[in-house]
Write a structure and sequence with these properties.
- The protein is built from 3 helices and 63 strands.
- It is mostly beta strands.
- The protein has 7 domains: 107 residues, Immunoglobulin-like; 81 residues, Immunoglobulin-like (Sandwich), CATH 2.60.40.10; 72 residues, Immunoglobulin-like; 71 residues, Immunoglobulins (Immunoglobulin-like, Sandwich), CATH 2.60.40; 79 residues, Immunoglobulin-like (Sandwich); 79 residues, Sandwich (Immunoglobulin-like), CATH 2.60.40; 170 residues, Galactose-binding lectin (Jelly Rolls), CATH 2.60.120.430.
- Strands 54, 55, 56, 58, 61 and 63 form a 6-stranded antiparallel sheet that branches.
- Strand 28 and strand 29 form a beta hairpin.
- It starts with 6 loop residues before the first helix and ends with a strand.
């Protein structure tokens, strides 16, 4: 121990110490300083362990114990912890820690305690609850007896300086005994010998294999210490039929699986039986009838069938167990069962599969009457096992649900839209049986198409003539495009606009009634634009025949936009509202081929090729012919009023009968009589809005109606 002898020496030492500390503080960061937070125990035992807890303790190179015992080899040496064994020659006094940064003097004195010693533990082999005597010395310092696995006892039967009597806890297990003074940093002493604590031990289990739900007899020793029995790893039982030191009778859980069996005493330690426990499973010996019929019962024979709580058929459908015993089950076959093996599942989840797949009955058809009928009329099917038929499917895919049938006869109503041909019976499990006989089916209300165009363009209104035309509720163009715009529609005529997205080329139109009847049209060819039939009848083509003036567009020839590589008029305006001219002309600047039309106005139409790039939402395109003799006649084109925003994916041809031009701004009843007199002005204009206008126009022309 370092002792300061006089004041001068103390002053010099203090000055040196302070100087060292100041220099050290200039060189070292505070985080590098050695810091002792706690140490102990004190009192300590010679031969016991002393702990030092702090920061940067790895800088300690020597610990000096009283009196001047230098320790340089430690049991544990980390920045946070140093442990060492107290030498036998250690006495009471102060401790010193030497570091490269200076010495540390803990203020608390180290007190050396007289050693607690354990001489004997009697008896050395016990059962939980027995009282043991621990004999030794200095037991007056002991406040806690700790059994293996940290089972602590602080209340003793008796307690003297040389003996402690204590009851063995129920949770105790074999191991050493530890005595402690109970301090925060405790002084502890372990026994040199182990205390043997009895545990359950199994010698046999009968019967093995055992049937789940029945009793199992377990023999062995100390079995009365068992608090739980664990079956198949997860199934624990804590209630027994009977229990003694040598025998336990326990009911095996119905959901237990084959596997190890363990006794669990209060200590929680699993004590496994020397052999695994096997389980008795159900055995299937027969299923009848086979083939079985969906919706009806089968009888299953075998052994231990009372363990079964689920029966699964092909397709995963679950049957209903009507009754059962150990040797026989009655099970209802599900209506949707498929042909496959049958699986029997116990409460424990063990599956037992039948040796063979079970066959299922199919219906048979002997006759269908009548064979010729209208839609919505009934057919009667006779045969066998028809009570398992859920639906009848007719040619064309229409199905009629079946109810109220018998084993030998069912009735089905022919759905609208059914076609002539065979029928298919669909059973409750989805099996299908096709008829040999064929039906001749006539629609109950049969629309008939008499005449329609051979060609049409996207956006064009076509007229279809026939009988019962007004019963059609849907008109479907290629491919699966429902018409949304119609004109006249009555018993003999239907006018419908061709969808802009129609598939170009040859195709047919499907007409469907409210009741699902459908009629397919003759072939019609859809074209994007009509060809120019007679160049002499061109009004404007923006190549050689240009309008006299236009303030709403420019003449372009962009290969990407051009219809045929020639010029066209391009209009691209934002939020246009009011009057503009796409193209206009009169006799002062050109001629119009109206003299060719002459008085044959009803024999001609005007056509114009157009491509609408961005949707038009308002306003109108106005086609005009003006005559000094007859007046001013207009046709207003504005399909977006009925159909919403209007675009064309491609160039299309708009066709307008000349008889559709009217006076009074297009709203009157007057029509043009002699086109040769219409030389005052002609052209195409825009009025109204507001709307964005982004479109191309080409080939404004007359054409003779063939």
């Amino acid at each position: 121990m370092f002792i300061i002898k006089n004041k001068i020496t103390a002053f010099i030492s203090l000055l040196i110490l302070l100087t060292g500390l100041m220099l050290n503080s200039c060189k070292k960061d505070e985080s590098d300083a050695v810091e002792l937070l706690s140490w102990g125990p004190s009192p300590a035992l010679r031969g016991g362990e002393l702990k030092f807890i702090g920061n940067n303790l790895n800088k300690v190179n020597t610990i000096v114990l009283p009196d001047n015992i230098e320790i340089t080899t430690f049991n544990t040496f980390t920045p946070e912890l140093i442990t060492l064994t107290v030498p036998e020659e250690t006495v009471d006094g102060y401790v010193l820690l030497r570091t490269g940064d200076g010495d540390i003097y803990p203020k608390t004195m180290l007190i050396i305690s007289e050693p607690i010693t354990i001489d004997t533990i009697v008896p050395s082999s016990v059962r939980p609850g027995d009282i043991i005597s621990i004999q030794g010395d200095y037991f007056n310092l002991v406040n806690e007896v700790i059994f293996t696995d940290k089972i602590s006892v602080t209340e003793f039967v008796s307690h003297t300086k040389t003996e402690i009597e204590v009851a063995v806890p129920l949770e105790a297990q074999t191991g050493v005994i530890t005595l402690s003074n109970g301090d925060t940093i405790p002084l502890t002493v372990e026994s040199a010998m182990e205390l043997i604590v009895a545990a359950p031990a199994v010698t046999s289990m009968t019967p093995n294999p055992v049937k789940p739900g029945t009793n199992l007899t377990i023999t062995g020793t100390n079995l009365d210490l068992t608090t739980q029995i664990e079956f198949s790893i997860t199934k624990k039982v804590s209630s027994f039929e009977s229990i003694s030191a040598t025998q336990i009778v326990v009911e095996v859980p119905v959901n237990a699986l084959a596997g190890p069996v363990s006794m669990i005493p209060a200590s929680g330690i699993l004590v496994a039986a020397p052999e695994e426990l096997a389980m008795i499973d159900p055995v299937i010996t027969g299923i009848s009838p086979d083939p079985a019929k969906t919706g009806q019962d089968i009888t299953v024979t075998g052994t231990n069938l009372d363990l079964v709580n689920t029966v699964t058929f092909g397709g995963g459908s679950e049957g209903s167990i009507v009754s059962g015993s150990t040797t026989e089950l009655t099970v209802t076959v599900p209506e949707d069962a498929l042909e496959d093996v049958v699986t029997f599942i116990t409460v424990a989840g063990v599956s037992v599969v039948s040796d063979d797949a079970i066959s299922l009955v199919l219906p048979t058809i002997t006759d269908i009457t009548p064979l010729s009928l209208l839609t919505k009329e009934d057919i009667t099917i006779t045969g066998t096992d028809l009570d398992i038929v859920a639906a009848v499917r007719f040619t064309g895919g229409k199905e009629a649900q079946v109810s109220g049938g018998t084993d030998i006869e069912i009735t089905a109503t022919v759905p609208p839209g059914s076609l002539s041909g065979t029928v298919t019976l669909i059973t409750t499990n989805g099996s299908e049986v096709n008829s040999v006989q064929s039906l001749t089916i006539t629609p109950n209300l049969a629309p008939e198409i008499v005449a329609m165009p051979a060609m049409a363009a996207p956006g064009e209104m076509i007229e279809i003539k026939g009988f019962n035309m007004d019963v059609f509720s849907e008109v479907i163009f290629p491919i699966d495009l429902n018409a949304t715009m119609f004109g006249l529609k009555n018993d003999t005529i239907m006018q419908v606009y061709v969808p802009l997205e129609v598939k170009l080329g040859p195709g047919t139109i499907i007409f469907i009634t409210d009741e699902g009847e459908y009629v397919e049209s003759p072939e019609i060819t859809f074209v994007s634009v009509d060809p120019v039939v007679d160049p002499a009848l061109i009004i404007f083509d923006f190549d050689t025949k240009n309008p006299g003036w236009h303030n709403g567009g420019t003449i372009e020839n962009d290969p990407i936009l051009s219809l045929d590589g020639s010029n066209y008029l391009r209009v691209d305006l934002v939020n246009q509202n009011g009057w503009i001219t796409f193209g206009a002309q009169n006799s002062d600047g050109g001629t119009m081929p109206g003299n060719i039309v002459g008085t044959n106005v009803s024999d001609y139409v005007v056509k114009v090729d157009i491509k609408v790039i961005d949707p038009i939402t308002a306003g109108r395109i106005r086609f005009r012919f003006q005559s000094d003799a007859e007046g001013d006649f207009w046709y207003n084109f504005q399909p977006w009023v009925e159909s919403g925003p209007y675009t064309t994916p491609n160039w299309i041809t708009i066709t307008i009968p000349l008889t559709d031009f009217h006076d009074s701004d297009g709203a009157g009843t007057g029509v043009m009589n002699d086109m040769s007199t219409f030389t005052k002005e002609w052209g195409i204009n825009w009025d109204g809005g507001p709307s964005n206008i982004n479109l191309c126009i080409d080939n404004y022309r007359f054409e003779l109606i063939e």
